[in-house]
Write a structure and sequence with these properties.
The strands form 2 sheets. An 8-stranded parallel β-sheet has the order 7-6-5-4-3-2-1-8. Strands 9-14-13-12-10-11 form a 6-stranded mixed β-sheet, with helices on both faces. The protein folds into 2 domains: about 325 residues, Alpha-Beta Barrel (TIM Barrel); about 130 residues, 3-Layer(aba) Sandwich (Rossmann fold). It is α/β, with parallel strands linked by helices and about 475 residues long. The termini are far apart. The longest helix is centred in the C-terminal third of the chain and has 18 residues. It holds the Pfam family Glyco_hydro_3. This is Glycoside hydrolase family 3 protein.
Length: about 475
């Protein structure tokens, strides 16, 4: 391979954030980092404990200058606490409290934990304005439905993360909040005019740019007024025209995971990589599915695209310069001590809401109504069991639940029903309604967005299903 070939391959590899299975770095990842690979994205399956993550990131950084990223939003979407649930409430809870200093403190605490583990880029916060209650992928990940509220908390989150040299990645541009389709599975459409987009979706992104956000993540969302039928990730009108031009952003643009169906089922992984680079992306998050063979094929396709004139060499050089500037901002990787997490539970306690009155618990039966996890959240444990050790916990599929049997089991006992996003699941609503119709003295705990509630029963809204949210709810229940 000639020197120019090696240089071009290095530029192509430098645009990729790869993933891998396991808690140690495979040889191919270390080898590619030595040859200019952009970095990695970690997932729950890469995490055992903070010490292990620190060892992993030390090995990665020893192989090359790496962007080491993950999705640590607090709340439902967590990677460091994937196996136990986050000690921090998510954005919906912080938006419900609406104390920007609290949001800044929570995100600073999250960042200090990440920095102590050697992670330098957090794919957070979600700046989506959640105007669609039935949104299957955002929901409690959003600060709320009001653009001004979302903007001020997005700024606070960016400031909190970046105060300890962890880069924020504000997502999902130009806005995923008005969608009813999960972009992991198809291409959602935000069919509004530019005036609505500017007054709603773009407000938090503009504020985050003004606050110095180091990176912005694209959405695999089509906005016909800007992108036509094309997802924003692949649209130069969205990334170069709107984000770079109109909003004046010159930081790093990172794609949402390219292994999502919105990309793979339309233009393919390697084709999508070339198109998003041409559109204006700088770092391509490949997601957890692509293998080393896929990575090699993507690099080869980027190289071919440059050689064939489908992708200007200057575009790769521009991306490399932006990523180099980001790495320079990271600075040295001195050991950071994680802040003690007291702010997470404090924030969850401030967010939780009780409507009605609860009775003292007597031999409580807790019925947890199972809710299928979204792909973004994954199979993170949730529920109130850890804080009610003396309770009997029964988890049921709502459509298959035997209501008379459950009511018989709850006879002469306190009944607590725990749901998540009941407004999105008719079977969950029907089950809760049937239970409280017979037991109006029950308490219902909603661990998603509190959009729907039964006609009777005490009602606790947590605005999220993180470990901190559950503890705060149980404290109210047992107060």
């Amino acid at each position: 391979m000639s020197q120019s070939d090696r240089g071009l391959r290095r530029l192509a590899a430098g645009t990729l954030l790869v993933a891998f299975q396991g808690t140690t770095a495979p040889e191919w990842v270390l080898r590619e980092l030595e040859h200019g690979l952009g970095g990695v994205t970690l997932f729950g399956f890469n995490v055992a404990d903070p010490g292990q993550v620190r060892d992993l990131t030390t090995a990665l950084r020893g192989a090359g200058e790496a962007v080491i990223s993950l999705d640590e939003e607090g709340g439902d979407v967590t990677r460091l606490a994937y196996h136990v649930g986050s000690p921090y409430p998510g954005n919906a809870a912080l938006g419900a409290v609406d104390d920007v200093e609290l949001t800044r403190r929570v995100y600073r605490a999250i960042a200090s934990e990440l920095a102590a583990c050697g992670i330098n880029l957090d794919m957070a916060p979600s700046a989506d304005v959640n105007t669609e209650a039935d949104n299957p992928v955002i929901g409690t990940r959003s600060f709320g439905s009001d653009p001004a509220l979302v903007a001020r908390h997005t700024v606070a989150a960016v400031q909190g993360l970046q105060s300890v040299q962890v880069a924020a990645c504000v997502k999902h541009f130009p806005g995923h909040g008005a969608t009813r389709v999960d972009s992991h599975l198809a291409v959602p459409v935000v069919d509004v005019g530019l005036d609505v987009l500017r007054a709603r979706e773009l407000v938090p992104f503009s504020a985050a740019i003004g606050a110095g956000a180091k990176s912005v993540m694209t959405a695999h969302v089509a906005v016909p007024a800007v992108t036509g039928d094309t997802p924003a990730t692949l649209s130069s009108a969205a990334l170069t025209g709107l984000l770079r031009g109109e909003l004046g952003y010159d930081g790093v643009v990172i794609t949402d995971a390219l292994d999502m169906h919105a990309i793979t089922k339309s233009v393919g992984l390697a084709g999508g990589a070339v198109l998003t680079l041409a559109a204006g992306s700088d770092l391509l998050c490949l997601g957890p599915l692509p293998t080393y063979d896929d990575v090699q094929a993507i690099i080869a396709e980027i190289v071919s695209a440059v050689r064939e004139g489908r992708l200007p060499l200057e575009r790769l050089e521009e991306a490399a310069a932006r990523v180099a500037a980001l790495r320079a901002w990271f600075g040295t990787s001195e050991q950071v001590t994680a802040e003690q997490n007291v702010v997470g539970l404090h924030a969850a306690r401030r967010a939780v809401r009780l409507t009605g009155e609860t009775e003292p618990l007597v031999e409580p039966l807790v019925i947890e109504v199972d809710t299928p996890p979204t792909i973004a959240v994954g199979d993170v444990p949730w529920g109130v069991g850890p804080w009610l050790p003396d309770a009997e916990i029964v988890r049921v599929e709502p459509a298959a639940a035997d209501v008379p049997e459950l009511l018989a089991k709850a006879a002469n006992r306190s009944l607590v029903v725990v749901v998540k996003d009941a407004h999105r699941h008719r079977a969950s609503q029907d089950l809760v309604s049937a239970l409280v119709a017979v037991r109006p003295d029950a308490t219902v705990i909603e661990m998603g967005l509190p959009v729907w509630r039964p006609d009777s029963a005490a009602y606790i809204a947590t605005y999220g299903a993180a470990r901190a949210n559950a503890q705060a709810a149980v404290e109210l229940l047992t107060a």
